[in-house]
Specification:
Layout lengths: L11 H4 L6 E2 L11 E5 L2 E4 H14 L10 H24 L6 H14 L4 H10 L4 H23 L6 H10 L6 E10 L6 H19 L5 H8 L10 E6 L5 H8 L10 E3 L2 E11 L5 E12 L7 H16 L4 H8 L11 E6 L5 H9 L9 E3 L2 E14 L1 H32 L2 E3 L1 H4 L1
Antiparallel strand pairs: 1-3, 2-3, 2-12, 4-5, 4-7, 6-7, 8-9, 8-11, 10-11
Amino acid sequence: MKNALPLLLAGLLALGSALAPTPASAQDTIPLDGIVAVVDEEVILRSELDRAVGNILAQYANQPGQLPPREILERQVLDRLVLMRLQLVRARDNGIRVSDGELNQAIQSVAGRNRMTQDQLRDRLAQDGLGYEEFRNSLREELMLERLRQSYVQSRVQVSEAEVDQLLAVREIGGPEVRLSNILVALPDGATPEQIATAERKITGIREVIMKGELDFRAAAIRYSDASNALEGGDIGWRGYDALPQNYVGMIRAMSPGEISQPLRGPSGYQLVQLVETREAGRQTATEYNAQGILVRPTPTLPPEAARQKIEDLHRRLVAGEDFAKLARENSDDTLTRADGGDMGWFAINTWGTAIGNQVQQLADGELSAPFQSDSGWHIVRRLGVREQDVTEVNRRNQAREVIGARKAEEEFERFLRQLRSEAYVETRLTAAG
């Protein structure tokens, strides 16, 4: 898609709505050469593949030389369609749904991130040749796939404090970050010496083409890489050194932005790694507030109007000079703070919700708010102080936890996808369909 919208969900515009299921029983009414793959009881049609490939070709209309030959591109896209179809079927079987309300909210978020209204988004999609309903279907499917992933890994991935301590002891967390890209020439399991030699010659040749300036790294990745991120130009994204394979850390530290590694042999085959850019991580601070609060919650015995009158009466008593802590202990419905006289401790701006956060942010130290309402009921807060807190160590531990969790989640989900693929009946017919 020419000038495709940035920040859409991964693969959304590339594949379009090419995933709507077509029952295999429909084969009797579909010409044989119209089917490019049979996936269990469903089929993927030539028109679906052509639409997905066409979207990618349109994205690179001004740079056609960056794409691999048509037959390789079709194979890459078809592999994605098959795997995504299998995931969608599993998601539906597991009862995963995306309501129209949730979908509309996601569309609003996409429009907002692109600084557009929804009408402007609709017009832009039309300009780029993507129908609005096609876009909605694609986004719904992307959301379903993300929920499938979350539901699968959530109960299977746990990170202990001991694991965090262990990682922090051996890896640098919260330090400099690097943005990397890679090109993979894959090798099958049990590759023969001839296959290994061929792959080594190919990766060496790719590097020579890049170094001569005939293709940049991104274009070479799109054209030649066997990795799943090939169509993204080999982009791996930002990584801390803690998230890199240990045997790569020293090499990447010694590289300069733009530099490309020598061919590297790994478990999946040969690859090239490019250091795209680097950035430093400095001391991290967060603004924290200290406040007291009183909550009056409407109940069946205290109707909303009576709750409002009660909070206004408490406010008058506070203005008259009565002790906040005493009134909080006697009247507040907030069970978390009542025993401490309404003391909310030190907290980040929206820890207690946006309604309280907005009030506290506007107050001066020692100032009492007017009564205000949130989803929980009626509130009064008094701001006691504000500070800039060093959260570098807290963030380091959180980053370590995320690194471990992300690695475990990726391993679990990759295992799930391999199992899903191995258990499915998949027959590809690209030769017959082409």
